[in-house]
Write a structure and sequence with these properties.
- Helix 1 crosses helix 7, helix 4 runs parallel beside helix 5 and helix 6 packs across helix 8.
- About 45% of the residues are buried.
- The model has no long low-confidence stretch (mean pLDDT about 95).
- The chain has a domain of about 180 residues: NAD(P)-binding Rossmann-like Domain (Rossmann fold, 3-Layer(aba) Sandwich), CATH 3.40.50.720.
- By secondary structure, the chain is of the alpha/beta class.
- The protein has ten helices and 13 strands.
- Strand 5, helix 5 and strand 6 form a beta-alpha-beta unit.
- The longest helix has 22 residues.
- It has a seven-stranded parallel beta sheet, sandwiched between helices. Strands 7-10 form a two-stranded parallel sheet. It has a two-stranded parallel ribbon with strand order 8-13.
């Protein structure tokens, strides 16, 4: 089995590359700016159609894991053309190459494809994005579903773990950095998420990649607001919780709307017996491998 990770130097992508390597899978990956010190990396700009289609059709991977996206919700709202170029046209170009090579597509999606008006969301719900980021990911899902190729769509939410210096930060690391510097941290009480510990997510991709098709929610087991999550992070890492101050999101005056979406991961447990870490377990696991 040959697996291609598109976006192999991002947070999730790089963890996938290393995990698949450890499992002795024939793994290849693409990068744009940064490069992992691992064999099998190839430069690729997925916004360029011709080289993308040729690269994939020549490589002929059995499975393509598409992790590349602009995930900054506010940037996507401000610069919609850029968001469309990367998040929409990018996956279209990858699908065109995959159609020639008859590769299975594993598409990493997001809770932002929903508006949060329902109490919870299972996999078969109709998408209803509030933000332009959510719109681009919903379009990506639709292109994958109608491609005629075997596919997996894995929706996740607020992934967190240790990162490399060039990678985008996450909510947990922001808490650790701010409190570690003895600074006050303002955290939002009206944004709720199902935070996902990245090593759990990576394990699921490996377990499902050649065994499942369709849509799965691959998220943590707790639905929690950002303020409570920050408090729990401080407790697990032994930092000062009193430095964390609750605020409402309207105080931030941000361009993009956020939706409070509770993705449920029951399908993952029922079909494959896979359980996902809650916030406490994920943070404890992260703390046990504390990065210096």
């Amino acid at each position: 089995m040959r697996v291609l990770i598109v976006g192999g130097t991002g947070v999730i992508g790089s963890k996938l590359v290393r995990y698949f390597k450890e499992k002795n899978i024939d793994i290849k990956f693409t990068y744009l700016k940064n490069h992992l010190p691992i064999d099998g990396g190839y430069y690729l700009d997925i916004t360029e159609k011709t080289p993308t289609v040729k690269f994939i059709s020549d490589m002929k991977p059995d499975i393509i894991v598409h992790t590349t996206a602009i995930t900054n919700v506010d940037l996507c709202e401000i610069n919609r053309d850029l968001a469309d170029l990367v998040n929409v046209n990018g996956i279209k170009n990858v699908i065109e190459g995959a159609t020639i090579s008859r590769s299975k597509i594993i598409y990493i999606s997001t809770s932002a494809v929903f508006d949060g008006r329902k109490k919870e969301y299972e996999e078969n719900e109709c998408v209803s994005p509030l933000s332009h980021y959510g719109v681009t990911k919903a379009k990506g899902e639709e292109y994958v579903k109608t491609s005629g190729l075997p596919y997996l769509i894995l929706r996740t939410d607020q992934p967190y773990c240790w990162i490399e210096k060039w990678q985008h930060t996450n909510s947990v690391l922001r808490v650790l950095e701010t409190l570690g510097s003895q600074k006050t941290l303002n955290e939002v009480v009206d944004w709720h998420n199902t935070p996902t510990y990245v090593p759990d997510f990576v394990r699921v991709v490996f377990e499902l990649c050649d065994k499942a098709d369709g849509i799965f929610h691959v998220v943590g087991s707790d639905f929690i607001n950002r303020y409570e999550w920050a408090l729990e992070t401080a407790r697990i890492f032994g930092l000062n919780q009193e430095l964390i101050k609750p605020i409402n999101s309207d105080e931030l005056n941000l361009p993009a709307k956020r939706s409070n979406v509770k993705l449920v991961n029951h399908k993952l447990l029922q079909k494959f017996g896979i359980s996902m870490s809650g916030v406490e377990e994920g943070l404890k696991n992260m703390n046990s491998i504390r990065k210096t």
